[in-house]
């Protein structure tokens, strides 16, 4: 393209320029793209930058011509996109009318500025969108400390308009009114936690970050920041902490129950640990009595206790705990207590009771849940204790009659006669008469019925220190502690009389059931062993049988056999 360009500062006008040295010089020297159009809007002059733009993308020039044609007065400014080697650039053109009807066009690269403005606009829009969708709320306070701006969603259940002009301290909880707050901070605040009042009066936990605002003279003119309502997170965290603490306490009590081999000892320790875990003044553990619960009422007996003395607990309260549903809370004088029944496989087997002084903190949900957890495991411990007792009975008792078996009887007898202060006692050796005939004629089932009846007869009327036992077959024993010869005879007579009431179990009238009883009185301090005592009673029993059965006989008093020394033994006669 042949265009006349002037690049110098010559004062003599050329024919091509028509004496207009000003515009020509301006087009040539202008630092950006420049054009001069004639009255027909054809290019009269263009500098190098404008020529480069036309070479790269000639589409922008018709846009400018259309703009100039449509302008009836000074056209002003016009921005057009131009495709260049650097990409799309935005050129802002200023149109100046010339006396000959043409136009002087001066361009300026507006790409960077537009990008910056666009970026700023997008940044503001992005910030606005983020604030609007965020759970955080932005705020600003003025020199008087009141809110002058709150993001449009408002905060703490208040609409934004209700907070504007309000003193933030009016939102503080009563106990925190005098504490520093981020809304009037004099130095930056980062992630500080505070509790405020929501619109409905409930406490709300807020995490705030803020910056102070200062005027040109350094005077404080307010603060600006953001707050985030973290009440739900804090409550969940606190609840999780309470659950973990409850699990830790419950785990400790459970380990206490499991680590003790003896279930009764474990219950005693569990009472102590339960009271401590619940910050209680005391704890009682009750157990359902054997055979209880078959009717409408479960009878309870105390098996473990810890802590301060508790007034007498009536059966009415224990019945409410054992026979009711869920946890029972009550007051006993100035004492507040809670109780819950214990179960195993949906069967009530006891109760748990804890108490505090009346001026202590009331029971809360954590206490109640921990109480329920402990009660569940106490129920298992009760079942374990019952199982241990059943095993102990199986190992100590005769399976048919319930009497002590041979091993246990002699172990207990050994312990009894080893006490020097036990006083005179008696061992009754009892053997059934004509029992074999019952088995032979009526079978072993009838024989078992007889043996069970004898077991009942021996245990009827016995005292806590007495030991009834079955040695095997139809042989029985009865140890009567602190019993002299006269009392032993009375017991023997009672047994013989009771046996006559079992005559209907006999094999036949010709072979009536009976008892042969041998009595051996034991005097402590004479050195008699269990074996010697048993042999005396056994021998007396055979004496009773020899007298015609159905009788008792008294063994002679024990006489220690003197030890024979070697000097008392006569010398052997020499062999013939």
UniProtKB/TrEMBL annotation:
SMART domains: GAF, GGDEF. GO terms for molecular function: catalytic activity. Residues 190-242 form the PAC domain. Residues 423-557 form the GGDEF domain. Coiled coil: none annotated. NCBIfam families: GGDEF, sensory_box. This is Diguanylate cyclase with PAS/PAC domain. It comes from Azospirillum lipoferum (strain 4B).
């Amino acid at each position: 393209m042949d265009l006349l360009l002037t690049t110098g500062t010559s004062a003599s006008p050329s024919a091509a320029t028509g004496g207009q040295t000003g515009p020509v010089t301006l087009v040539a020297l202008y630092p950006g793209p420049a054009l001069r159009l004639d009255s027909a809007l054809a290019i009269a002059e263009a500098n190098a930058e404008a020529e480069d733009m036309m070479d790269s993308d000639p589409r922008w020039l018709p846009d400018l011509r259309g703009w100039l044609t449509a302008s009836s007065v000074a056209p002003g400014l016009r921005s057009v996109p131009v495709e260049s080697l650097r990409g799309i650039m935005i050129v802002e053109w200023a149109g100046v009318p010339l006396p000959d009807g043409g136009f002087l066009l001066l361009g300026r690269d507006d790409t960077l500025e537009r990008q910056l403005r666009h970026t700023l606009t997008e940044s503001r829009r992005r910030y606005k969108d983020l604030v609007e969708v965020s759970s955080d709320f932005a705020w600003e306070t003025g020199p008087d400390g009141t809110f002058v701006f709150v993001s449009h969603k408002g905060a703490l259940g208040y609409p934004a308009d209700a907070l504007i002009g309000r003193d933030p301290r009016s939102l503080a909880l009563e106990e925190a009114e005098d504490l520093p707050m981020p809304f009037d901070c004099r130095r930056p605040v980062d992630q500080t936690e505070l509790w405020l009042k929501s619109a409905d009066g409930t406490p709300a936990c807020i995490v705030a970050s803020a910056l102070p605002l200062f005027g040109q003279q350094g005077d404080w003119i307010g603060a600006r920041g953001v707050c985030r309502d973290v009440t739900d997170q804090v409550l969940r965290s606190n609840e999780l902490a309470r659950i973990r603490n409850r699990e830790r306490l419950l785990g400790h009590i459970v380990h206490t129950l499991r680590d003790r081999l003896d279930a009764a000892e474990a219950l005693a320790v569990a009472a102590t640990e339960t009271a401590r875990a619940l910050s209680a003044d005391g704890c009682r553990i009750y157990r359902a009595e054997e055979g209880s619960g078959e009717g409408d009422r479960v009878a309870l007996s105390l098996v473990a206790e810890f802590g301060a003395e508790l007034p007498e607990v009536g059966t009415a309260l224990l019945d409410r705990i054992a026979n009711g549903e869920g946890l029972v809370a009550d007051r006993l004088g100035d004492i507040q207590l809670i109780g819950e029944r214990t179960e195993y496989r949906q069967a009530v087997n006891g109760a748990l009771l804890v108490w505090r002084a009346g001026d202590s903190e009331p029971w809360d949900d954590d206490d109640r849940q921990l109480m329920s957890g402990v009660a569940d495991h106490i129920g298992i411990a009760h079942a374990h204790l019952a199982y241990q007792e059943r095993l102990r009975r199986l190992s100590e008792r005769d399976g048919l009659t319930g009497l002590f078996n041979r091993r246990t009887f002699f172990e207990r007898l050994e312990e009894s006669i080893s006490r020097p202060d036990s006083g005179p006692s008696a061992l009754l050796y009892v053997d059934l008469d004509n029992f074999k005939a019952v088995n032979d004629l009526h079978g072993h089932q009838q024989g078992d019925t007889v043996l069970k009846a004898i077991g009942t007869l021996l245990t009827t009327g016995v005292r806590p220190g007495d030991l009834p036992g079955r040695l095997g077959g139809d042989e029985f024993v009865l140890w009567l502690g602190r019993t002299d010869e006269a009392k032993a005879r009375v017991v023997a007579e009672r047994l013989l009389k009771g046996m006559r009431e079992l005559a209907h179990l006999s094999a036949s009238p010709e072979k009536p059931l009976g008892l042969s009883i041998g009595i051996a009185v034991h005097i402590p301090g004479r050195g008699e062993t269990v074996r010697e005592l048993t042999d005396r009673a056994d021998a007396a029993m055979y004496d009773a049988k020899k007298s015609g059965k159905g009788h008792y006989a008294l063994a002679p008093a024990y006489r220690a056999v003197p030890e024979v020394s070697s000097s008392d033994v006569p010398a052997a006669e020499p062999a013939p």
